[in-house]
Amino acid sequence: MCRHLGFLGSPRTLHDVVYGPEHSLERQSYAPKLNLFNVLNADGFGVGWHTAGRTVRYRRAVPIWTDVSFAEVAEVVSAGSVVGAVRSATSGFPVDESCAQPLRCETWLFSHNGRVDDFGGVEMKLRELAGDLSSVPEARAPLDSALLFAIAVGRWRAGRSLGGGLADTVTSVAAFAPGRYNLLAADGTSLAATTWGDSLFVRALPDAVVIASEPYDDDPDWERVPDRSLVTASLLDGIPDIRLRPLNQA
After folding, report:
1. Contacts from 162-165 at CB under 8 Å and sequence distance 24+?
2. Over the stretch 95-109, which tens digit does the pLDDT of each residue have?
3. What pLDDT is recorded for position 38?
4. Beta strands per DSSP E along the chain
5. Torsion over CA: 170, 23, 41, 18 (sign)
6. Which residues are known catalytic residues?
7. In Å, how far are 204, 209, 249 from 222, measured between CA atoms?
8. Tens-place pLDDT, residues 151-191
Protein backbone atom coordinates (compact mmCIF):
# COMPACT_ATOMS: atom_id res chain seq x y z
CA MET A 1 0.00 0.00 0.00
CA CYS A 2 1.63 3.20 -1.21
CA ARG A 3 5.14 4.53 -0.58
CA HIS A 4 6.06 7.78 1.12
CA LEU A 5 9.11 9.80 2.04
CA GLY A 6 9.94 12.72 4.32
CA PHE A 7 13.03 14.94 4.04
CA LEU A 8 14.27 17.54 6.51
CA GLY A 9 17.57 19.38 6.19
CA SER A 10 19.62 21.79 4.14
CA PRO A 11 17.51 22.72 1.12
CA ARG A 12 17.57 20.39 -1.86
CA THR A 13 15.67 20.60 -5.10
CA LEU A 14 12.47 18.60 -5.16
CA HIS A 15 14.00 16.68 -8.05
CA ASP A 16 16.93 15.61 -5.87
CA VAL A 17 14.54 14.35 -3.18
CA VAL A 18 11.84 12.70 -5.29
CA TYR A 19 13.53 11.71 -8.56
CA GLY A 20 17.28 11.78 -8.04
CA PRO A 21 18.22 8.64 -6.05
CA GLU A 22 18.79 5.30 -7.76
CA HIS A 23 15.67 3.79 -6.16
CA SER A 24 13.76 7.07 -5.94
CA LEU A 25 10.18 7.59 -4.88
CA GLU A 26 9.31 7.84 -8.58
CA ARG A 27 10.86 4.42 -9.22
CA GLN A 28 9.03 3.00 -6.21
CA SER A 29 5.79 3.90 -7.96
CA TYR A 30 6.39 1.22 -10.61
CA ALA A 31 9.15 -0.98 -9.14
CA PRO A 32 8.89 -1.04 -5.33
CA LYS A 33 11.08 -3.54 -3.54
CA LEU A 34 9.26 -3.90 -0.23
CA ASN A 35 5.56 -3.53 -1.05
CA LEU A 36 3.75 -6.39 0.66
CA PHE A 37 0.27 -6.01 -0.75
CA ASN A 38 0.59 -4.60 -4.29
CA VAL A 39 3.05 -4.27 -7.17
CA LEU A 40 2.29 -0.74 -8.40
CA ASN A 41 1.70 2.66 -6.79
CA ALA A 42 0.14 4.30 -9.82
CA ASP A 43 -3.12 5.78 -8.51
CA GLY A 44 -1.85 9.31 -7.99
CA PHE A 45 0.95 11.12 -6.22
CA GLY A 46 1.70 14.26 -4.27
CA VAL A 47 4.62 16.33 -3.06
CA GLY A 48 4.37 18.94 -0.32
CA TRP A 49 7.04 21.30 0.95
CA HIS A 50 7.63 24.20 3.30
CA THR A 51 9.18 27.36 1.87
CA ALA A 52 9.20 31.07 2.69
CA GLY A 53 6.67 30.63 5.46
CA ARG A 54 4.25 28.72 3.25
CA THR A 55 3.12 25.11 3.04
CA VAL A 56 2.88 24.26 -0.66
CA ARG A 57 1.49 21.08 -2.14
CA TYR A 58 1.16 19.57 -5.64
CA ARG A 59 -1.10 16.56 -6.32
CA ARG A 60 -2.29 14.59 -9.33
CA ALA A 61 -4.50 11.55 -9.84
CA VAL A 62 -2.06 10.05 -12.36
CA PRO A 63 1.12 7.98 -11.98
CA ILE A 64 4.06 10.19 -11.05
CA TRP A 65 6.09 8.93 -14.03
CA THR A 66 3.55 10.42 -16.45
CA ASP A 67 3.80 13.98 -15.13
CA VAL A 68 6.88 15.19 -16.99
CA SER A 69 6.00 18.83 -16.33
CA PHE A 70 6.26 18.44 -12.55
CA ALA A 71 9.57 16.60 -12.95
CA GLU A 72 10.88 19.61 -14.85
CA VAL A 73 9.56 22.15 -12.35
CA ALA A 74 11.02 20.08 -9.50
CA GLU A 75 14.51 20.77 -10.84
CA VAL A 76 14.24 24.48 -9.95
CA VAL A 77 12.22 24.36 -6.69
CA SER A 78 14.19 23.87 -3.47
CA ALA A 79 13.01 23.23 0.08
CA GLY A 80 14.35 22.04 3.40
CA SER A 81 11.18 20.16 4.39
CA VAL A 82 9.50 17.80 1.91
CA VAL A 83 6.90 15.04 2.03
CA GLY A 84 6.24 12.92 -1.05
CA ALA A 85 3.83 10.04 -1.61
CA VAL A 86 2.82 7.68 -4.41
CA ARG A 87 -0.54 5.95 -4.08
CA SER A 88 -2.01 2.51 -4.55
CA ALA A 89 -5.73 3.06 -3.97
CA THR A 90 -7.49 0.79 -1.52
CA SER A 91 -10.38 -1.09 -3.09
CA GLY A 92 -13.58 0.90 -2.67
CA PHE A 93 -11.97 4.33 -2.76
CA PRO A 94 -11.74 6.43 -5.94
CA VAL A 95 -8.67 7.40 -7.93
CA ASP A 96 -9.14 11.13 -7.47
CA GLU A 97 -6.84 14.07 -6.86
CA SER A 98 -8.50 14.75 -3.50
CA CYS A 99 -7.34 11.31 -2.36
CA ALA A 100 -3.69 11.83 -3.32
CA GLN A 101 -1.37 12.55 -0.44
CA PRO A 102 0.13 14.34 1.38
CA LEU A 103 -2.93 15.94 2.88
CA ARG A 104 -2.47 19.49 4.16
CA CYS A 105 -3.81 21.71 6.95
CA GLU A 106 -2.10 24.87 8.19
CA THR A 107 1.61 23.93 8.43
CA TRP A 108 1.01 20.18 8.61
CA LEU A 109 1.60 17.70 5.80
CA PHE A 110 0.36 14.15 6.33
CA SER A 111 0.62 10.82 4.53
CA HIS A 112 -0.82 7.38 5.34
CA ASN A 113 0.73 4.21 3.98
CA GLY A 114 -1.81 1.51 4.80
CA ARG A 115 -5.53 1.07 5.26
CA VAL A 116 -8.31 0.92 7.84
CA ASP A 117 -9.76 -2.59 7.69
CA ASP A 118 -13.57 -2.85 7.45
CA PHE A 119 -13.79 0.91 7.01
CA GLY A 120 -17.54 0.83 6.55
CA GLY A 121 -17.97 -0.89 9.90
CA VAL A 122 -15.90 1.63 11.85
CA GLU A 123 -16.46 4.83 9.88
CA MET A 124 -18.88 6.32 12.42
CA LYS A 125 -16.44 5.73 15.27
CA LEU A 126 -13.69 7.39 13.23
CA ARG A 127 -15.94 10.38 12.55
CA GLU A 128 -16.70 10.69 16.26
CA LEU A 129 -12.97 10.81 17.01
CA ALA A 130 -12.34 13.25 14.17
CA GLY A 131 -15.01 15.72 15.28
CA ASP A 132 -16.02 18.73 13.20
CA LEU A 133 -14.39 18.45 9.78
CA SER A 134 -15.17 22.01 8.72
CA SER A 135 -11.82 23.27 10.00
CA VAL A 136 -9.90 20.48 8.22
CA PRO A 137 -11.32 20.68 4.68
CA GLU A 138 -9.16 17.91 3.23
CA ALA A 139 -10.49 15.50 5.85
CA ARG A 140 -13.66 15.39 3.73
CA ALA A 141 -11.84 13.51 0.95
CA PRO A 142 -13.42 10.11 0.18
CA LEU A 143 -10.79 7.86 1.75
CA ASP A 144 -9.99 6.33 5.12
CA SER A 145 -6.74 8.29 5.49
CA ALA A 146 -8.63 11.58 5.57
CA LEU A 147 -10.30 10.81 8.89
CA LEU A 148 -6.97 9.71 10.36
CA PHE A 149 -5.63 13.10 9.31
CA ALA A 150 -8.51 14.90 11.01
CA ILE A 151 -7.88 12.98 14.22
CA ALA A 152 -4.18 13.87 14.11
CA VAL A 153 -4.93 17.55 13.47
CA GLY A 154 -7.20 17.55 16.52
CA ARG A 155 -4.37 16.16 18.64
CA TRP A 156 -1.90 18.74 17.32
CA ARG A 157 -4.29 21.61 17.92
CA ALA A 158 -4.77 20.34 21.47
CA GLY A 159 -1.04 20.77 22.06
CA ARG A 160 0.42 17.38 21.27
CA SER A 161 3.78 17.30 19.51
CA LEU A 162 4.03 16.21 15.89
CA GLY A 163 5.05 12.70 16.91
CA GLY A 164 2.73 12.56 19.91
CA GLY A 165 -0.24 13.41 17.73
CA LEU A 166 0.56 10.60 15.30
CA ALA A 167 1.10 8.13 18.13
CA ASP A 168 -2.21 9.08 19.77
CA THR A 169 -3.99 8.70 16.45
CA VAL A 170 -2.62 5.23 15.75
CA THR A 171 -3.15 3.80 19.23
CA SER A 172 -6.66 5.22 19.60
CA VAL A 173 -7.82 4.01 16.17
CA ALA A 174 -6.10 0.62 16.30
CA ALA A 175 -7.91 -0.09 19.59
CA PHE A 176 -11.15 -0.67 17.65
CA ALA A 177 -10.11 -0.83 13.98
CA PRO A 178 -7.49 -3.30 12.74
CA GLY A 179 -5.41 -2.05 9.86
CA ARG A 180 -2.02 -0.86 8.73
CA TYR A 181 -1.06 2.50 10.16
CA ASN A 182 2.22 3.80 8.81
CA LEU A 183 1.71 7.56 9.17
CA LEU A 184 4.13 10.33 8.20
CA ALA A 185 3.92 14.04 9.02
CA ALA A 186 5.98 17.22 8.72
CA ASP A 187 5.47 20.74 10.03
CA GLY A 188 8.45 22.53 8.51
CA THR A 189 10.80 22.05 11.45
CA SER A 190 10.40 18.35 12.26
CA LEU A 191 9.36 14.97 10.89
CA ALA A 192 7.47 12.16 12.60
CA ALA A 193 6.35 8.73 11.44
CA THR A 194 4.79 5.57 12.80
CA THR A 195 5.14 1.93 11.84
CA TRP A 196 2.18 -0.39 12.16
CA GLY A 197 2.06 -3.15 9.59
CA ASP A 198 4.46 -1.97 6.88
CA SER A 199 8.13 -1.12 6.38
CA LEU A 200 9.82 2.14 7.37
CA PHE A 201 13.44 3.28 7.36
CA VAL A 202 15.31 6.31 8.63
CA ARG A 203 18.69 7.68 7.60
CA ALA A 204 20.83 10.49 8.96
CA LEU A 205 22.85 12.51 6.44
CA PRO A 206 25.49 15.06 7.50
CA ASP A 207 22.95 17.89 7.22
CA ALA A 208 19.58 16.17 6.82
CA VAL A 209 17.25 13.33 7.81
CA VAL A 210 15.23 11.09 5.50
CA ILE A 211 12.34 8.85 6.57
CA ALA A 212 11.04 6.52 3.87
CA SER A 213 8.90 3.44 3.31
CA GLU A 214 11.95 1.84 1.74
CA PRO A 215 15.55 2.94 1.15
CA TYR A 216 16.17 4.94 -2.01
CA ASP A 217 19.69 3.53 -2.40
CA ASP A 218 21.94 0.76 -1.08
CA ASP A 219 23.75 2.83 1.54
CA PRO A 220 24.20 0.78 4.75
CA ASP A 221 23.31 3.78 6.94
CA TRP A 222 19.59 3.17 6.48
CA GLU A 223 18.07 1.92 9.75
CA ARG A 224 14.87 -0.12 9.75
CA VAL A 225 12.32 1.24 12.21
CA PRO A 226 10.79 -1.60 14.26
CA ASP A 227 7.09 -2.31 13.82
CA ARG A 228 4.74 -0.42 16.15
CA SER A 229 7.25 2.35 16.74
CA LEU A 230 7.37 6.12 16.51
CA VAL A 231 10.34 7.87 14.92
CA THR A 232 10.83 11.62 15.24
CA ALA A 233 13.50 13.77 13.62
CA SER A 234 14.65 17.36 13.86
CA LEU A 235 17.84 19.34 13.39
CA LEU A 236 19.83 20.73 16.33
CA ASP A 237 22.31 23.33 15.07
CA GLY A 238 22.09 21.62 11.70
CA ILE A 239 22.84 18.16 13.10
CA PRO A 240 20.19 15.42 12.77
CA ASP A 241 18.46 14.42 16.00
CA ILE A 242 16.59 11.14 15.51
CA ARG A 243 14.63 9.39 18.24
CA LEU A 244 12.86 6.02 18.16
CA ARG A 245 10.52 4.62 20.76
CA PRO A 246 7.70 2.07 20.99
CA LEU A 247 4.31 3.56 20.19
CA ASN A 248 2.95 2.56 23.59
CA GLN A 249 5.65 4.72 25.21
CA ALA A 250 5.05 7.78 23.06
Report:
1. 162/108, 162/186, 162/187, 162/190, 162/191, 162/192, 162/232, 163/190, 163/192, 163/230, 163/231, 163/232, 163/250, 164/250, 165/192
2. 999 999 999 999 999
3. 77
4. 3-13, 45-51, 54-60, 78-86, 103-105, 108-116, 179-186, 190-195, 201-205, 208-212, 223-224, 229-236, 239-246
5. positive
6. 2
7. 8, 11, 23
8. 999 999 999 999 999 999 999 999 999 999 999 999 999 99
